[in-house]
Amino acid sequence: MATTFWQETKDTAPDSFWSSGHSPTLIAAFLYFDLAFMVWVLLGPLAPEIATTLGLTPAQKGLMVAVPTLAGAVLRVVNGLLVDRIGPKRAGAISQIIVIVGLAMAWALGVTSFAGTLALGVVLGFAGASFAIALPLASRWYPPEHQGKAMGLAGMGNSGTVLAALFAPALAKLFGWNAVLGLACIPLTLVFLVHMVLAKDAPNAPAPKRLAEYLSPLKQGDAWWLMGFYAVTFGGFVGLAASLPIYFTDRFGLSTIHAGYATAACVFAGSLVRPMGGALADKVGGVKALTVVFLVAAAALAGVASAGTMEIALALFVAAMLALASVTARCFSWCHSASSPRSE
Fold first, then answer.
1. Coil, helix or strand for 22?
2. Does residue 339 have a pLDDT over 60?
3. DSSP, res 344
4. pLDDT band at 27 (very low <50, low <70, confident <90, very high)
């Protein structure tokens, strides 16, 4: 009888999101993404303290927080190749180990120069490249009609930026900014263990291709459009998340802790709306969603340039982050749909 009831339940709700995929893997992907994102932008909240200790110029501060983002963009290609060859679970394990070991070494040996911050930024780029692992890990379990929601939920891991902005400045005040690098290894190790226990590779993984075949999408005009859309939406989101602590301390004289709170408010707003944006784009279509996003973000950021008070600037940054984060997940869904094999 129990078997009959289960069969009837599945038949009556064949399109249920939660029954169409693998929830433990989705949870593991979210946690991996969340903590990876936390350490990816860790240099942003710590930047004012690091700059004071090492005597960095404004240009050096900007480059320091940009290197993890740039390294993450390049390393996503590497991680994408690994995912297709060894599976996202093992690729994720390798990437997490690299980040944990790198942070532990930076804490033990100390970061005493500008060059050292750049080297650490490259290591943290592996955390940023978690996109190429965590999203396939989760989305391959779900059919196309639910991939916007799946990647939106897994992509809520960008809320890890909130954790970095909230806790890193306060911990740096208590223990010193170098100690924060070691403390970050504790939650990273716990999430690594969860990843190894809960995550499971989907059975319908695409077969690995020859290296030359990975370049074939570049021949399609849509690929360039999607890269442009994603560079503006997510690139704007992560760029602001890493740079806002510096902006609020330099522009309005906030303490590092209060600048972290302001940054956390902006990032939390964007992280919260991401799954809703993915679901909305699934329903109304991506072109309409993108049009609204670009108009709202452009208006908000233009307003920041003339904002006279911290409160006005904060409200405008929140609006911009809401807009930019809302369709990021859908960009990934479009890429997946475009690259999926079509039935003959």
1. coil
2. no
3. -
4. confident
CATH topology of domain 22-204+219-339: Growth Hormone; Chain: A; (1.20.1250)
* pLDDT > 80? residue 158: no
This prediction has a pTM of 0.82
For residues 320 and 303, give the distance between their C-alpha atoms in angstroms, rounded to a whole number: 10
- Return mean pLDDT, the chain: 83
| pLDDT of residue 4 exceeding 50 | no
From CA 277, how far away is CA 6, in angstroms rounded?
A: 32
Contacts for 317 with CB less than 8 Å, ≥ 6 apart: 240, 244, 266, 300, 304
Q: Are 60 and 246 in contact (CB under 8 A)?
A: no
Secondary structure class of 15 (helix, strand, coil): coil
Under the banding of pLDDT at 50, 70 and 90, the label for residue 288 is: confident
pLDDT at 230: 81
HEC sequence for 181-204:
HHHCHHHHHHHHHHHHHHCCCCCC
Q: What angle do CA 170, 51, 101 make, to 5 degrees?
A: 70
Tell me the DSSP string of 280-326: HHHHH-HHHHHHHHHHHHHHHHHHHTT--SHHHHHHHHHHHHHHHHH
